[in-house]
Amino acid sequence: MAENFFLDNPDLRFRIANAGLDEVIRMRERDFSETEEYPDAPDSVEDAKDNYDKVLAMVGEVCAELIAPRARDVDAAGCRLEDGKVFYAEGTRENLKNLQQAQLMGAMLPRRYGGLNFPVTVYTMMNEMVSRADGSLQNLFGLQDIAETINLFGSEDQKRRYLPRFASGEVDGAMALTEPEAGSDLQAVQLKAHYDAATNTWRLNGMKRFITNGCAQVLLVLARSEEGTKDGRGLSMFVCERCPGLLVRRIEDKLGIHGSPTCELQFNDVPAELVGERRRGLTRYVMSLMNGARVAISSQAVGIAEAAYREALDYARAREQFGTTIDKFPAVYEMLVRCKVNIAAARALLYETAKFVDLRDSYAELVAHTDREALPPGVRKKARMYSKIAAELTPLAKAFTTEMANEVAYIGIQIHGGTGFMRDFNAERFYRDVRITNIYEGTTQLQYVAAIGGTVQRVLDPLMDELSLLPYQGRLRRLASRVDVGRDRLREAIHSVTEHHRHDTEYFELVSRRLCEMEIIVFVSYLLLRDALKERPREVLAERYILDMMPVLDTHYAWINSGDFSLVDRHEEILAL
Fold it and tell me: Max CA-CA distance within the chain?
């Protein structure tokens, strides 16, 4: 067992060292103006980075020495429901206690509420390490987005009452969105919110299902506040606390993530408070929640993939067959190399995404809290640009990281052979735990739907322009030229779809996956080439990824430009066979 999940991971350390957060740090720290009021506040960019390294090392130690050794017992014990109350496994309770004692429960909250004031990028790294230790624990630790949503959209009174309790670990949170008949179609939410004038409060009535950590003390609830409405414009966001009227009817018996309870909830006149403005629950507040959740689940997927890869590598190096360890067999080491490269590629996309989420949030806060006349020139333009980039990258990152992690966990069992199918080994737990990541918080297919608009509008073009013009030489130059060709083909494919099939909704949806995957391949290739400029040994990662993935891009390109659309027209005929 490793001693520290941060110090033993050169790729993660490379990411934080090259995260490009200087501007974010200055804005988040208000040009280091909090040092007098808060002794732990940094006085420079370097001081902030040093603090990030120290905290990440502490998280890495807690994860390796305390959380990971309990993971198998947590999985076996699961959660139980008795008399309407949910009980975590003993190991989960100890894990949460350890994280609380380390003062990590308010990572992104401002210091005035007891938080660490960390950027999303650093919090995402914390989530990745927690997920490597125990994928199910991230579903509890990673719900700090609940507090962040209150911080972004709640009233000052709500922030004062709730946020210090989140930061101290006194309360935990859940987001109650999904309903039995609504599923991913949140516009169909029917849980009712009515205003009780006699008590000057809102009351919630209805059902919610598949609610992660639905037994939490504080819940953000999407509810229908406007009588007679049937779409998203009639929905508002509410905050409520656990009370006798809020019943946990059942916890789901799941394939994996056993340490995290998934609950069915019944609301019976539950008192609640409106968060933000009426009618904006889905269109603004849930969209913000979902963006945060996409990054969190991406980190969960990468963490589980890292654990599955390392378990497979250790097994392959120890398992002897035909007089040698199986890691020497080409069929096995080829699988291990694919896992290693794809995890590095996913991590590159994830932390580039997190950086732009940080930039988006920093500029949005600056615009929101500065008089229009006092805003420096260009700030609003940058705010809009970063918002568009983050909105494009978050679904792409979730699609790529979660599909990658499922493949790595699958390969992990394959390398273990028959033993990987047995509960005696961790490989089968990783396989079960990772399967949900490309389903919840929006399936992979819905991520492509969310991203395709930005893909065809070429939102990432300015970033790719900059990356393509970096001073590559030698082998890197040849690889970059191959990526440039792939980018040209992406452009041609987008043009073909938008010019000839603009009004063919069915065809447009059918090709969205292919276009999004082409964009991911090009963008990630450039990111890995940039990494190789910063650290030359990483050239081999870029080379392997590009050589593996450019043929995939070419296949998508050929399919889109073939002119044969029979699969669109004849899908029912094919499915009927």
Answer: 81
Say if 574 falls within a structural domain: no
Q: At what angle do helices 475-500 and 444-456 cross, to 10 degrees?
A: 90
Same domain, 353 and 446: yes
Query: Residue type at 347?
Result: R
What is the domain-level CATH number for residue 484? 1.20.140
Q: Which uninterrupted H or E stretch holds 211?
A: strand 201-212
* Residues of the chain scoring pLDDT < 50: none
Rounded CA separation 34/174 (Å)? 31
**pLDDT at position 367:** 93
Task: Tell me, yes or no, whether 576 lies in a domain.
Answer: no
In a 3-state reduction of DSSP, which class is residue 175? strand
pLDDT of residue 160: 97
Q: 143 lies in a domain?
A: yes
| Mean pLDDT over the full length of the chain | 94
pTM of the model: 0.96
CA–CA separation, 197 and 549 (whole Å): 60
The answer to whether residues 493 and 524 belong to one domain is yes
pLDDT at res. 567: 59
Q: Which is it for strands 192-196 and 262-275: parallel, antiparallel or unpaired?
A: unpaired
Question: Is residue 572 one of the residues assigned to a domain?
Answer: no
Active-site amino acid positions? 441
Structural domain of 516: 460-566
**Structure confidence at residue 561 (pLDDT):** 86
> What DSSP state is assigned to residue 256?
S
Amino acid in the structure at residue 415: I
Q: Are residues 196 and 334 in the same domain?
A: no
| pLDDT, tens digit, 9 for 90 and up, residues 545-555 | 999 999 999 99
